[in-house]
TrEMBL record:
Belongs to the homoserine dehydrogenase family. Pathway: Amino-acid biosynthesis; L-methionine biosynthesis via de novo pathway; L-homoserine from L-aspartate: step 3/3; Amino-acid biosynthesis; L-threonine biosynthesis; L-threonine from L-aspartate: step 3/5. The keyword Amino-acid biosynthesis applies. Keywords: Amino-acid biosynthesis, Methionine biosynthesis, NADP, Oxidoreductase, Threonine biosynthesis. It comes from Allosaccharopolyspora coralli. This is Homoserine dehydrogenase. It catalyses: L-homoserine + NADP(+) = L-aspartate 4-semialdehyde + NADPH + H(+).
Length: 369
C-alpha cells in the first residue's frame, strides 16, 4: 500500500531520537551500571491502560529493566500514569500505589499532563472493552502519542482508521503484543521479510491451544487443561477464543495486514474448534507418534482457516511445547522461515510491549506498517 510518510513529530523526532541513541551509545561510559559522560538520553514517558496481569507485568518489567535500557539503548522508559477500568494512579517507585486510585479523567488531558510519548494498551480483547479501547487509541494518536498495544479487538475492527490516524499524526502503532506476545512474528511480517514476497503464513500462534492439546493427549480432561492454562496466565479470562481458533485466526489476520496490507476487518475466517471430542483425536495422534496441533493458515489476503492437524513430533509445529508458539513464513525463493518460542504469558506480552515501546524511540516508523 503506497503511502506518503509524513515527517512530523514521530518520524522527525524518532530520526533525531535514533541519532541521539547512537550518540548515547558512542559517548556513554558505564560506571556501576550508570551511563555517564556526554550521553544524551531519550525520555519516554508512558501512560499505561490496563492493570491486569499484562499491565502489571509491564510495570514490573520497566521497573526492573529501565536502568539497563537507559545504559544500553540511551532510552529512559518510565510509566508515569496507569489507568484501569474506573480509576487511575501514578506509580510509586515503579509499582502500583497501595492506596486508593483517583477517578478516571479525560485521557487526552492525562497524556498532555504527563507529556506522554507512548500510550501502552493492555486491556481485555473483549467485545465489552472494544468501544473504549478503540476510542482511546484514537485519542492517543490525535495527541501525537505513539501506541503499543496487546489488545487485539480494536485492530480487527478499526485497522484502516487507526493506520490513517497514525499516519496523519506521524505516529507508530506497534502491535507485537497482539500478534503472539514475545514471538517476534509481527516484526518479521511488518518489516524484516519485506521484499521476500511472502506467499503464505501458517502456524500455532495461540499458546493455550497447543498447551491444552498436549494435556488432552496425556489423558487430562478439557476443563482441567483449560484451568491449568488459566492458572499459568496463558488463556484469556474467557478462553472461548483460545479454543474456537478465533484468537489464532486473529493473529494471522493481523500478520496478513502487516505482510500484505490485507483488509483485516473483512478477512474470512473458518475454524474447527477444540472440544471435548478433540481428546480422542489428540490421543490417537499421540499413539501414532504425532501431535495434534491447531494450525492457522493464511495463503491469501482474503481468508484464514484454523484446522486440527496431526503433525510429526519432529516438525516445527509438532515439536512445540505450549505455551511456546511458532509461525512459518513461506517466502518463495527464500524458502520457509520459521520463528518459534516467545511463550504466551503476561510476562511475554509485557516483553513485546516493552520492545515496541523502545522501538518508538529507536526505529522510526509511521502507521501500522
Ligand atoms: N496473557 C497473555 O499471555 C497475553 C495477553 N494478551 C492480551 O493482553 C491484554 C491484557 O490482558 P490481561 O492483563 O490478561 O487483561 P485483563 O482481562 O486482566 O484486564 C486488564 C485491565 O483492563 C481493565 N479493563 C477491563 N475492562 C475494561 C474496559 N471495558 N475498558 C477499559 N479497561 C478495562 C481492567 O481494569 P480493572 O482492574 O479496573 O477491572 C484491568 O486493569 C488482553 O487483550 C490479552 O488478549 C496478549 C498477549 C499475551
Ligand atoms: N490467550 C493467548 C494469549 C496471547 O495472545 C494465547 O494463548 O496465546
Amino acid at each position: 500500500m503506497p503511502r506518503a510518510r509524513r515527517a512530523v513529530r514521530g518520524a522527525a523526532g524518532a530520526g533525531a531520537s535514533a541519532r541521539a541513541a547512537g550518540l548515547a551509545r558512542r559517548c556513554g561510559r558505564r560506571r556501576a551500571g550508570r551511563v555517564v559522560g556526554c550521553a544524551r538520553v531519550i525520555d519516554v514517558p508512558v501512560v499505561l491502560a490496563g492493570a491486569g496481569p499484562v499491565g502489571r507485568a509491564y510495570l514490573d518489567l520497566v521497573a526492573a529493566r529501565s536502568r539497563r535500557w537507559r545504559a544500553r539503548y540511551g532510552v529512559n522508559v518510565r510509566v508515569s500514569a496507569v489507568r484501569g477500568r474506573r480509576g487511575q494512579a501514578v506509580p510509586e517507585g515503579g509499582s502500583l500505589p497501595h492506596g486508593s486510585w483517583s477517578p478516571l479523567t479525560d485521557l487526552a488531558a492525562v497524556l498532555r499532563e504527563h507529556r506522554a510519548r507512548v500510550f501502552v494498551q493492555a486491556v481485555p480483547s473483549s467485545a465489552e472493552a472494544l468501544p473504549r479501547a478503540a476510542a482511546e487509541l484514537h485519542t492517543a494518536l490525535e495527541q501525537g502519542v505513539h501506541v503499543a498495544t496487546a489488545t487485539k479487538t480494536p485492530l480487527l475492527t478499526a485497522w484502516h482508521d487507526l493506520d490513517r490516524a497514525a499516519t496523519d499524526a506521524g505516529c507508530a502503532v506497534r502491535i507485537s503484543g497482539a500478534t503472539g506476545a514475545a514471538l517476534p512474528a509481527g516484526d518479521l511480517a511488518r518489516s524484516v521479510l519485506r521484499g521476500f514476497d511472502v506467499e503464505a503464513v501458517e502456524g500455532c500462534p495461540n499458546g493455550t491451544a497447543t498447551f491444552v492439546l498436549d494435556r488432552l493427549a496425556d489423558g487430562i480432561e478439557l476443563p482441567e487443561a483449560i484451568a491449568a492454562a488459566q492458572r499459568l496466565g496463558i488463556a484469556e479470562a474467557d478462553p472461548t477464543a483460545d479454543l474456537s481458533g478465533d484468537d489464532a485466526a486473529t493473529k494471522l489476520r493481523l500478520l496478513a495486514g502487516l505482510l500484505w496490507a490485507a483488509d483485516v476487518p473483512s478477512m474470512r475466517v473458518s475454524a474447527s474448534p477444540i472440544t471435548e471430542a478433540t481428546a480422542e483425536e489428540a490421543r490417537s495422534a499421540a499413539a501414532r507418534g504425532r501431535r495434534l496441533r491447531h494450525v492457522a493458515v493464511a495463503d491469501s489476503p482474503e481468508s484464514v482457516r484454523v484446522d486440527l492437524r496431526a503433525e510429526a513430533a519432529t516438525s516445527p509445529l509438532g515439536g512445540l511445547e505450549g505455551p511456546d508458539k511458532a509461525v512459518t513464513f513461506h517466502c518463495g525463493d527464500a524458502g520457509a522461515i520459521t520463528v518459534r518460542g516467545g511463550r504466551s504469558s503476561p510476562h511475554g506480552a509485557a516483553l513485546a510491549l516493552a520492545k515496541d515501546t523502545l522501538a518508538t524511540a529507536l526505529d522510526p516508523a509511521v502507521g501500522l506498517r
